[in-house]
TrEMBL record:
Its main location: membrane. The keyword Membrane applies. It comes from Bradyrhizobium japonicum. Residues 38-87 are annotated as: Disordered. Coiled coil: none annotated. Residues 1-21 form the signal peptide. This is Iron complex outermembrane receptor protein.
Length: 794
């Protein structure tokens, strides 16, 4: 990036230029937003309020789970009505990737906004399921790091997750299973993007946005569902204006008993959240929000790989392939392997296993329209989380014991871990709309600061035993002895963004972020003695940003390109840095170009993007607790998405993603003194091809009925750097039907919907995810299930 050019561009902005202030009218974030037009000024109206903006064995887990706004604001009295929504939802305003307040379409990058309506239509219930609605994304519920993603050749901590624009920490440590009922939308930006997300956004960033109050009549909604795994889900929400003039509210509560297909597994997800917005006057709005989330889990840690030709084994086809020798117990000659058909629901966890988390969010802020051309927005937040794991995690088939048939052939190993995290901080934006030499301009300066204390208590015994493959005596956890790890992270950043419209159709968009990160860590063994080389501290000063353009070459046809950068720790997780690990920040960059198409009637939309990403100086996990130089990861690919509503009632959509991701110069000497090279290999959990398609038709009858179907194909993936174990490609189908019951049948309810859904229609057996820290076991995808549901709005 040319820093001189970008700084010159940003410094050209005058804070006293005549213009409209950036509106905060984002009660409905998915409405269509027009281009930035600041000449001539128009009368400002009071807007509504915005809330502000794989583990190696001991290494990863050692420290833990190892918008432009319109020129004329929407009046505050506007109630939420059906927004103009394009087929791919690119008219949605998004906070991910930029604080300029522009739409996904206006970004010189690939940005997807998945609305609550889309989540309901596709049957998305948890944040991991969100991947089904995105192009080229897969999600994994690895129990040690739930709700993580893979996209554009990167996964896990190389994809940053945000909560209402706030980074919490590395996703493999802080991610939790979460119900989407309380979310307004999920925003995804692809490729390196530290400008908003900060550290860890090499593969992109995902922002979870809560439902917010609206101004207008109170609207209530409720839902309930039940599925064939005996899981149930229910929730209630309410929002609108109160009897106090200027005061609006939003309240949501939900519970999901998400029972697993593996014996004795579940996730019980509970959530309650609320927000109050108060318009002090037409220029000043203040707000406060609180949320508490809790998950109580009995996790499924994986199904062991077994030799395909071992006595008594009942092999399966289409789940895994290749040649394997036991990783964790050190080997033997690689042999063909399989998943035993008799173990598809077997649980190898101990009987007293438990995992879970409690998370409390407190947020508050204001928006002040200082003048017609300057606005100030600020959000202060506090986050307190307690997470725990108490499980048998390793289940590894030992090729060296017994005769396999009926032998105690599954080696098991325990790990217990507790987190106590406290994070607080502030994000403040100054937005200026102006005119520079006759060209419309929007400028944002952001100051952010946070303090993050992360305490860990981790069992060091790794108690182990053997159990039978078919009838494991699950037993109890056994003894535990903990060491203590304390990490503190202070982060401050200053960033600038600018959108300059050189013409009515051509805009330059750029930004730069300066960051100061101060890390300190100390560690005590199980006897309370300070461990060698601790404490230690390190300061990082990454500079990252983006420069790009958008060009409307014809009505509905926009070209764009960008160059963007990101930075993160060499090991992709700043909380697992050890004093003996090179304390460096790795860098990544992307070149991306594409086109966004929208028909004049807004019934058809398509996007195309091509990208080239490099991440240098990468360290990756190897041999359980070691990190080794992988040189760089290079990823190239294309993504295509299209959706059309050709006739009333019919919807068609589809997308494909092709990715080639490779290690470059990844050679080292392992713990046995043997030379290893993974150069040219594909990183774990990176499919080279993903495709999704769907169709639905709504019959305009007395009782309107809609039927639809979805198909999803995910290509081959690997569970480890050596690419010996392949998780085979799979294709799954979903089908659904729902009926909307008119109000005439239930006079007190405005909208009633009864739905029926089948997931994995063909009952396909497949591997959903592989954790590189648990290389002898695979996480299976769920078999066919049925769900009935009802929702109401009044």
């Amino acid at each position: 990036m040319s820093h001189a050019f970008l700084i010159t561009l940003l410094s050209s902005v005058s804070l006293s230029s005549a213009a409209l202030a950036q509106s905060a009218a984002q009660d409905n974030r998915s409405r269509e937003v027009g281009p930035v037009i600041v000449t001539p000024p128009a009368q400002r109206q009071a807007p509504a309020i915005s809330p502000g903006t794989q583990k190696p064995r001991a290494a990863r887990r050692a420290a833990g789970r190892n918008r432009g706004a319109p020129a004329v604001a929407v009046p505050a009295t506007q109630a939420p009505s059906g927004p103009v929504q394009t087929p791919l939802n690119t008219a949605a305003v998004t906070d991910v990737g930029s604080r300029l307040g522009i739409t996904a379409r206006e970004m010189p990058a690939t940005v997807e906004v998945i609305s609550q309506k889309t989540m309901q239509d596709l049957g998305i219930r948890t944040t991991t399921d969100v991947a089904k609605a995105a192009v080229g994304v897969i999600g994994g519920d690895a129990p040690g790091a739930p709700a993580i993603f893979s996209m554009r050749g990167f996964s896990g901590d190389q994809i940053s997750t945000l909560y209402n624009g706030i980074p919490i920490g590395p996703s493999t440590m802080t991610g939790r299973p979460m119900d989407v009922a309380g979310l307004q939308q999920v925003e995804i930006i692809k490729g390196p993007d530290s400008l908003v997300a900060g550290l860890g956004a090499t593969g992109g960033a995902i922002n979870y946005v809560n439902k917010v109050p609206h101004t207008g009549p109170v609207i209530n909604d409720a839902f309930t569902s039940y599925d064939s795994f005996n899981g149930y889900r229910a929730g209630y929400g309410s929002g609108g204006s109160t009897l106090i003039n200027g005061l609006d509210y939003r309240f949501d509560i939900s519970h999901f008993n998400n029972k697993g297909f593996i014996d004795d597994t579940y996730s019980k997800l509970s959530n309650v959240s609320g927000q109050l917005n108060y318009r002090v006057n037409e220029n000043l709005k203040i707000w406060g929000a609180a949320e508490y989330r809790q998950d109580n889990d009995r996790f499924y840690w994986g199904t062991p790989l077994v030799p395909a030709n071992a006595p008594g084994i009942v092999p399966t086809n289409g789940i895994v392939s290749g040649r394997w020798s036991n990783y964790y117990l050190g080997g033997g000659t690689p042999v063909p392997f399989t998943i035993d058909a008799r173990t598809l629901t077997t649980n190898y966890n101990v009987l007293d296993n438990h995992s879970g988390a409690g998370e409390l969010w407190l947020r508050s802020g204001f928006q002040w329209d200082i003048t017609n051309n300057v606005s100030l927005k600020s959000q202060v937040y506090g986050y307190d989380a307690h997470r725990h794991w108490f499980n048998n995690e390793i289940s590894s088939f030992d090729q060296t014991v017994g005769n396999f048939a009926g032998a105690q052939s599954i080696y098991r190993e325990r790990l217990a871990l507790d987190h106590a995290q406290r994070l607080y901080g502030n994000i403040t934006d100054l937005t200026v709309n102006s005119n520079v030499g006759g060209m419309d301009n929007r400028f944002v300066a952001t100051v952010a600061a946070s303090s993050n204390q992360f305490n860990v208590s981790q069992d060091t015994l790794f108690f182990n035993d053997y159990v039978d493959l078919l009838n494991p005596d699950r037993g109890l956890y056994g003894p535990r002895s903990d060491e203590k790890i304390y990490t503190h992270l202070d982060t401050t950043s200053l960033s600038f963004e600018d959108q300059l419209k050189l013409t009515s159709t051509f805009a330059l968009i750029g930004g730069i972020r300066f960051e100061n990160i101060e890390l300190s860590r100390t560690r005590f063994d199980e006897n309370g003695l300070l461990k060698a080389n601790y404490p230690f501290s390190k300061t990082f000063n990454p500079v990252t940003g983006r420069i790009g353009y958008t060009w409307d070459i014809a009505p509905g046809v926009m070209l764009y390109s960008q160059y963007a950068t990101a930075a993160d720790p060499t090991v992709a997780n700043i909380f697992i840095l050890r004093p003996t690990t090179p304390l460096l920040l790795t860098t990544s960059r992307t070149y991306e170009t594409g086109v966004k198409l929208l028909s004049a009637d807004k019934r058809a939309e398509a996007t195309f993007s091509a990208f080239d990403i490099e991440r240098k100086n990468v360290y990756v996990p190897e041999s359980g607790i070691l990190f080794n130089v992988a040189g760089k990861i290079a990823s190239k690919g294309v993504e295509i998405a299209a959706a059309v509503n050709p006739v009333a009632g019919l919807k068609l959509w589809g997308n494909v993603a092709f990715v080639q991701s490779r290690f470059i110069d990844f050679t080292y000497v392992d713990g046995n003194g043997d030379f290893q090279s993974y150069s040219g290999k594909t990183p774990p959990n990176v499919p080279n091809f993903i495709a999704n398609a769907g169709a639905s038709y709504r019959f305009d009858t007395k009782l309107p009925v809609e039927i639809g179907g979805l198909v999803r194909h995910v290509g081959d993936r690997f569970n480890f750097q050596d690419n010996l174990v392949t998780m085979d490609a799979y294709t799954i189908f979903d089908a659904y039907a729902f009926v909307d019951i008119p109000k005439a049948y239930f006079p007190t309810v405005d909208q009633t919907r009864i739905s029926f859904r089948v997931r994995n229609l063909t009952n396909k057996l497949y591997a959903a995810w592989g954790d590189p820290g648990y290389t002898d076991q695979i996480i299976l995808g769920a078999p066919r299930s049925y769900e009935v549901a009802a929702s109401f709005k009044w």
